[in-house]
Amino acid sequence: MNLGTKLGRKLQVRDQVRDTKYTRLKSGKIDNRILYQAGYDAMNIFHHIDLDKYTPSVIDISIDASSSMSGTKWKNTQIAVLAIAKACSMIQNVRVKISYRYETALSSGRRSGDNLLLVDAYDSKRDKIGHLVNCVFAMRPINCTPDSLITKYQLNKKMITPGGPEMNSYFINFSDGGPGSGVAGYGGRSAHDHIRKCRKEIESLGVKVLSYYITESDRHSSESSVIKQFKEDWGASNAKDISVTDVVALAKTMNEMFLSK
Predict the structure, then answer these.
(1) What ranges do the domains of the chain cover?
(2) How many CB atoms lie within 10 A of CB 184?
(3) What is the pLDDT of residues 120-148, one digit of tens each?
């Protein structure tokens, strides 16, 4: 939770209210500081204040729970997710929803790809942070990577909140790429094309997308074919190849998302 507290302090920019005062206007509220000038034929004695308030926000976090995410990848992802949830609990008007994407066998004798599972693990509007902590320790990565098949389900069921003048909406993905599932036809180029299509559909709802590429360590080539494909799927400006447990890097990428127009 210490990382979350540090992150929360760095994300406080979202909770600020900025005001800009315009003085010496011909209409508005009387500016008492220059009211004395009214007796000297000065008519520009009014002022106006613009308040820049941040609107309510919702963050949908979707986590790849395939077996390739096990080990250090899984540990770092869970640390980052807990940190984001904790940080956002320190900021007013931010709702965080966290879900896991699974492919799993629900009964013996069936292929794993017969079952895709979306785990609704946490909703800050409904749950306390302690609930998420318990979920983090209970979750384990398994089987293949259904990725956009789950995302498409969320879109079809209107589970991703549209953005607009009254609501800022964000979608954050944690994944190590490599989509593929036992579901017939999902894999290779067609799977990557489907991710890109779903991402564009999310963006068409007025939702800002941020996707973190998860690796075993920080020592890898940023020009690798896997990372290039990941950026193609999620959008070059949306895809981030950082250490997700680095609070400075995490805060920087999130603030860029929050403050982008």
Answers:
(1) 2-8+54-259, 18-52
(2) 7
(3) 999 999 999 999 999 988 999 999 999 99
